């Protein structure tokens, strides 16, 4: 037997250590199989693993890797090694009349061909990615396959593995057909929609197999090059049991005297008891202030122990919520080593260190018992074209995924989210918990969430009333200018008041007009860096504490507090005002604002929350807020006609359901499938790919997806946003450091400074960048690696301003 090198490293003694292709593919296949074995896709992952590098069985690749080891100049990827396995499988197994066999062949071939980068099955030029790989010349195909079959696996052995894979894919097809059967029979969905949904599932299935192969390949390569096997902390029933015991002990320390405390305890116990039910898609529909974080953690730990799950993954939409939830979770878990936080605010270790290698591994694999991450990272795992995102998809299998504030999933990707959730449960055996005080009706979508098994906790009307600490009413509508005297008059009645606007310029205008009042006036928006917002929140909290303390002690106090904010205050902020005003938006946003009012009943049995419609508001760039506002206005109109229909509460469950039906219906065709400017919808690109599927009959067309194009197009938020470092307090010192002589030669110094700078950056949209550039307010440093804001364009009250320096809000600071 001849051994062909897959990797070569030089050890500490200068000796050349060679890993053979045979060893590398054995290990890759073993790791890939381990990742998917519990969901009955292990054999398929194994087949892809044992064939993913068969193109390395050539003298050209051997010469390439030997030269690279000697330090000679070679072009990375100059020797093609991914096409050979694709061509072998398609030519050997695709020509039969067995459609499942042909589909299996394409799924495995794709995992082999894409393990270094996604490609389109059909691209914009209507070319077949598989046909390209089968007809490409100069890839040393015959030499690679001959050597592979003679020195590693025989053709008959591959056939045995292939037949096992076909059986697994057949099983998955049966699951998917059963999932879609009810709609097919009832006619609730058109045959075209059912075909699209089925193909979308097949695309996710292909991505899942690819994920397992990428992970196996990268893991084995890293272990060989480092000379050490990766230390992994596997979740076991004992680990979950011991962690749950710690949490129960911590829960026993919580007071349980008031009605609210008793209700929280009852809901938490319901969640623990519900954990015994089988895996499924569940809702956690609990009001604001009812303890969703602790209840969902108690459910997740209990469910993980009962069903021996691999991971618990907490997904939150905002970093402010994540920070708050992470602190709670860490306290009740009791062991930070079990927890991985993956989000942009985590300070990364320096590159080229052992700590960085470990950090990179865990963020690319989510190979930890408990993962706390953002909605962005979760959705990227399912749809982004980055290989690090694809790699960790396998970790969603056999997991519990708690999605907090699930109503914040962007409307443009509701169909992607809903269909992927179906796949994660029905194929990956994940348990999904949709947590929200305003639960969206995902069953109303064009591609609905299927098989939701209901609420984890039965929070009935009687219990909801315990947590209802506000009354929501509507103010008379007027223009923004005329609202100023309205809010001035309101503040005479209250010691503390919150106004939440839809737009930053509305908040800035009101702050400018109202800051002259004889009270403490604060501003909050995304125009301020994170550290700036933290300082403002601390000051607001201190003022509110003074007010509530005076109420408890019946002490007279003349202090008044007014906060004018955008949506940044709506969730994950533990502040409580006596009164709150919300510019008309979605009912979910209104209820979130209500959650910042009379949170613990400190201002009496019911705080006042008002909905205000600004008559001259322009939401031209904010399509989803505009649609949500329209849906709420429909709800308010119906409520005025027949409030009994909504139990006389604008925030009742029936009102929320009414709102989401109107909201979901308000978007044009294709919007919820993530429309793109050039390529149709991402949903279509990842399903039947009508836009680019070849008109002529192709030999390989069971998979039609444009994976690469869709992955490149997918972005959770505006891709034009630019992060700019601002000179707020320590930010000015950081900017100075990055401009110093140290920064010109000390890489570690620069990396540390850039990590600190994350707390002093503001994301600007393209139109804001253009305005600031025209004013000369931006400049670059570090060879254009970072963008900095001139100090005269950052205001100590409102943050970034894009007006001329002699006008507007800058006058407030002087």
Describe this structure in words.
This protein is α/β, with parallel strands linked by helices and 814 residues long. 48% of the residues lie in helices and 12% in strands. The chain has 31 helices and 21 strands. Strands 5-6-4-7-8-3-9 form a seven-stranded parallel sheet, with helices on both faces. A six-stranded parallel sheet has the order 10-15-14-11-13-12. A four-stranded mixed sheet has the order 17-16-19-18. Mean pLDDT is 90; it is low at 805-814.
Could you tell me the number of beta strands? 21
Fraction of residues in β-strands: 5-15%
How many whole angstroms does the radius of gyration measure? 29 Å
Strand order of the largest sheet: 5-6-4-7-8-3-9
Structural class: alpha/beta
Q: Averaged pLDDT, please?
A: 90
Shape: globular
Query: How many strands, which pairing sense, and closed or not: the largest β-sheet?
Result: 7 strands, parallel
Distance between the termini: 81 Å
What's the total helix number? Answer: 31
Provide a short characterization of the protein structure.
With 814 residues, this protein is an alpha/beta fold. The protein is 48% helix and 12% strand.
Show the helix and strand layout:
Blueprint (H helix, E strand, L loop, with lengths): L4 E6 L5 E5 H16 L5 H10 L7 H11 L13 H11 L5 H15 L15 H7 L5 H11 L3 H32 L4 H36 L10 H15 L7 H16 L6 E5 L6 H16 L3 E6 L2 H15 L5 E4 L11 H12 L4 E5 H9 L3 H5 L7 E6 L9 H13 L4 E6 L15 E4 L5 H7 L2 E5 L5 H14 L2 E5 L3 H11 L5 E5 L5 H23 L8 E5 L13 E5 L3 H8 L12 E6 L10 H19 L11 H13 L16 H4 L21 H7 L8 E4 L4 H9 L3 H4 L1 H11 L3 E4 L1 H9 L3 E4 L4 E4 L4 E2 L3 E2 L9 H4 L1
Parallel strand pairs: 3-8, 3-9, 4-6, 4-7, 5-6, 7-8, 10-15, 11-13, 11-14, 12-13, 14-15, 16-19
Antiparallel strand pairs: 1-2, 16-17, 18-19, 20-21
